[in-house]
């Protein structure tokens, strides 16, 4: 995942090199090694036992007239992009409020830690607010996530939407309240990346109680990542960098029996290898029911070395569980929205991820 000092996510600034947050945290080479050839597909379909969701709390579906609040728990959004995102939300009949420090600048953060956590907690605990939308990711959520007050959310759940750096919030709200949240576009909207299909997918996810089916897109860079089979479990995860850098912290979910979803941007292949190897060494990958791979964008390695797809095949194909790549989920163009924390099924051979609704009827 990109660091704000490198480039604002998701689009790079022309002519400017990005600095990976992961590369700033750790230096060195990635651990590699697998008997599987890059590009090979597992020959025997793998069938993982389904796991049921226990204790998940789904928020009520949003409806026209509901108050929703936009917060900036990480970096500061662009006012022009924000105007477009607000226009979309208001077009659905929602009453959009901005938290006090949405546009504040404090270094590369949208305000001090105290200001950002105050805005977030106010939105999560105001009984009149039915939805909380992140303005932007960038960086900064991990600095405040341990101070989130989720004590009222099981009794009064609400829609929470965001991706990238917001992965930490998703994990924390799942651990503390069992809240089903939504991994989808943020209010810092760009039509060139997230067009009408992305907007409609977000609307359906938070305003209807229809199941969500995401289909493998052959044009995605990860489309060839495939281990045939079916698996079910709660869908958990997010940005791989945030999953990795939260391990052992209070926003890291229990992935036992889950479908592990991940995506990332601006990470070199060896960094992706390092993070997946970390998950393997900790035993996490041996306990998941299946793996869902979203968009891996702007992953540029050295010539004559593995690219990101080769790394994914090397690190995932020997797990003994179904693996489905090529889903338009993450930092790439055409991003769609999925609930996190609810029950889902992957059929890798059919190329589908089917997720039960993340909201309940009003």
UniProtKB/TrEMBL annotation:
<dbReference type="GO" id="GO:0106415">
    <property type="term" value="F:muramoyltetrapeptide carboxypeptidase activity"/>
</dbReference>
<feature type="active site" description="Nucleophile">
    <location>
        <position position="164"/>
    </location>
</feature>
<dbReference type="InterPro" id="IPR027461">
    <property type="entry name" value="Carboxypeptidase_A_C_sf"/>
</dbReference>
<dbReference type="InterPro" id="IPR029062">
    <property type="entry name" value="Class_I_gatase-like"/>
</dbReference>
<dbReference type="InterPro" id="IPR040449">
    <property type="entry name" value="Peptidase_S66_N"/>
</dbReference>
<feature type="active site" description="Charge relay system">
    <location>
        <position position="263"/>
    </location>
</feature>
<dbReference type="GO" id="GO:0006508">
    <property type="term" value="P:proteolysis"/>
</dbReference>
<feature type="domain" description="LD-carboxypeptidase C-terminal">
    <location>
        <begin position="232"/>
        <end position="346"/>
    </location>
</feature>
<keyword id="KW-0720">Serine protease</keyword>
<dbReference type="GO" id="GO:0008236">
    <property type="term" value="F:serine-type peptidase activity"/>
</dbReference>
<comment type="similarity">
    <text>Belongs to the peptidase S66 family.</text>
</comment>
<dbReference type="Pfam" id="PF17676">
    <property type="entry name" value="Peptidase_S66C"/>
</dbReference>
<dbReference type="InterPro" id="IPR006311">
    <property type="entry name" value="TAT_signal"/>
</dbReference>
<protein>
    <submittedName>
        <fullName>Muramoyltetrapeptide carboxypeptidase</fullName>
        <ecNumber>3.4.17.13</ecNumber>
    </submittedName>
</protein>
<keyword id="KW-0645">Protease</keyword>
<feature type="active site" description="Charge relay system">
    <location>
        <position position="331"/>
    </location>
</feature>
<dbReference type="InterPro" id="IPR027478">
    <property type="entry name" value="LdcA_N"/>
</dbReference>
<keyword id="KW-0378">Hydrolase</keyword>
<dbReference type="InterPro" id="IPR040921">
    <property type="entry name" value="Peptidase_S66C"/>
</dbReference>
<dbReference type="InterPro" id="IPR003507">
    <property type="entry name" value="S66_fam"/>
</dbReference>
<feature type="domain" description="LD-carboxypeptidase N-terminal">
    <location>
        <begin position="68"/>
        <end position="184"/>
    </location>
</feature>
<dbReference type="Pfam" id="PF02016">
    <property type="entry name" value="Peptidase_S66"/>
</dbReference>
<keyword id="KW-0121">Carboxypeptidase</keyword>
């Amino acid at each position: 995942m990109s660091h704000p000092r490198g480039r604002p996510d998701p689009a790079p600034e022309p002519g400017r090199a990005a600095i990976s947050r992961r590369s700033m945290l750790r230096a060195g080479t990635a651990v590699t090694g697998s008997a599987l050839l890059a590009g090979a597909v597992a020959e025997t379909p793998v069938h993982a036992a389904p796991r049921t969701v226990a204790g998940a709390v789904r928020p009520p579906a949003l409806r026209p007239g509901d108050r929703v609040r936009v917060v900036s728990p990480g970096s500061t959004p662009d006012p022009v992009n924000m105007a477009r995102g607000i226009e979309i939300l208001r077009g659905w009949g929602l009453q959009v409020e901005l938290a006090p420090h949405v546009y504040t600048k404090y270094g590369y953060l949208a305000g001090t830690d105290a200001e950002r956590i105050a805005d977030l907690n106010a939105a999560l605990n105001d009984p009149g607010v039915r939805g909380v939308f992140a303005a932007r990711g960038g960086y900064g959520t991990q600095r405040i996530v341990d101070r989130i007050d989720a004590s009222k959310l099981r009794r009064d759940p609400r829609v929470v939407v965001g991706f990238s750096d917001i992965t930490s919030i998703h994990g924390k709200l799942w651990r503390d309240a069992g809240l089903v949240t939504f991994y989808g576009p943020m209010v810092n909207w760009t039509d060139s990346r997230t067009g009408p299909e992305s907007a409609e997918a977000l609307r359906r996810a938070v305003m209807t109680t229809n199941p969500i089916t995401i289909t493998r897109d052959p044009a995605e860079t990860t489309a060839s990542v495939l281990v045939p089979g079916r698996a079910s479990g709660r869908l958990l995860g997010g940005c791989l960098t945030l999953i990795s850098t939260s391990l052992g912290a209070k926003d890291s979910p229990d992935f036992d029996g889950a479908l592990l979803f991940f995506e990332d941007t601006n990470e070199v292949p060896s960094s992706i290898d390092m993070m997946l190897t970390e998950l393997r060494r900790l035993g996490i990958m041996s306990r998941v029911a299946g793996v869902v791979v979203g968009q891996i964008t702007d992953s540029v390695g050295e010539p004559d070395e593995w690219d990101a797809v080769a790394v994914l095949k090397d690190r995932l194909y020997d797990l003994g569980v179904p693996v489905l790549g090529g889903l338009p989920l993450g930092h790439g163009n055409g991003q769609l929205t999925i609930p996190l924390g609810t029950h889902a099924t992957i059929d890798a051979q059919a190329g589908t991820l089917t997720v039960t609704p993340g909201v309940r009827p009003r």
